[in-house]
Amino acid sequence: MGIIAVYPGSFDPVTLGHMDLIQRAAGLFDQVIVGVLINADKKSPLFSLEERVIMLKDACRDIPGVSVESFEGLLIDFVRSKRTIDPQNTSEEPDRVVIIRGLRELMDFDMELQMAQVNRIASRCIASREVDNENETGLEIETLFLPTDPKYSHVSSSVVREYGRYGVPLKEFVPENVLQAIKTKLNK
Ligand code: PNS
User: Fold this and answer.
1) Which terminus of the chain, N or C, has fewer Cβ atoms within 10 Å?
2) Which residue's CA lies nearest to atom 3 of ligand 1?
3) Which residue has the higher pLDDT, 113 or 136?
4) What pTM was estimated for this model as a whole?
C-alpha cells in the first residue's frame, strides 16, 4: 500500500509557489498527481485547460513520482478513482489517497477548511453507501495542508494574469516555460 497525493487546482497558470509545493509533496508521498480543472468561479481565464496541462507537464518533467492530469466534476470522484488495487496482487490493501492544498496566508484558511470538511463528509457518505457499513473506518478522503514557503506567499495565478496583461516581468513568479507561454499569449 502506498500513499498517493492529489494536488488539485486551476493552475492558470502554474506559479513558482505551486512548483515549490509539488517538489515538497514529491518528497513526502509515493506518488503525486496534479489534477487540473477549470474552476467555474474564476472568470477571465488566460490559458485553456490543455495549455495548463502541457505547461505543468513540462515544468514537472524532472520531478520523480509526479504526473499531471485534467479532470471534470467533483474532486472527490477524481480522488476516489485513484484508489486502486494492483490487479496482480489482490491481497494488497488499496492505495490511500489524500488531497493536498497549500496555505499562503490566513485569508486562504476559511475557504480551504470548509472545502476539506465537505470533501471529507461527502466522500464518507459515498463510500459508506458502497460498502453498506457506515461504521467502517478509513472511508473519508482527508485533506492535508502544506504551508507555502514565505518566499512565495505573495505569488498567485491571478496576480500573474493581471501583471502579465500589463507586461510586468514575471521571472520571480513563474517557471521559465510559463514565462515564455505568457509572452507568446499576450504578445508582451
Ligand atoms: O486553484 P483553485 O482554483 O483554488 O482550486 C479550487 C479547486 C479546484 C480545488 C476546487 O474548486 C474544486 O475542488 N473543484 C472541483 C469541484 C468540487 O469538487 N466541488 C466541491 C467542493 S465544495
Assistant:
1) N
2) 10
3) 113
4) 0.93
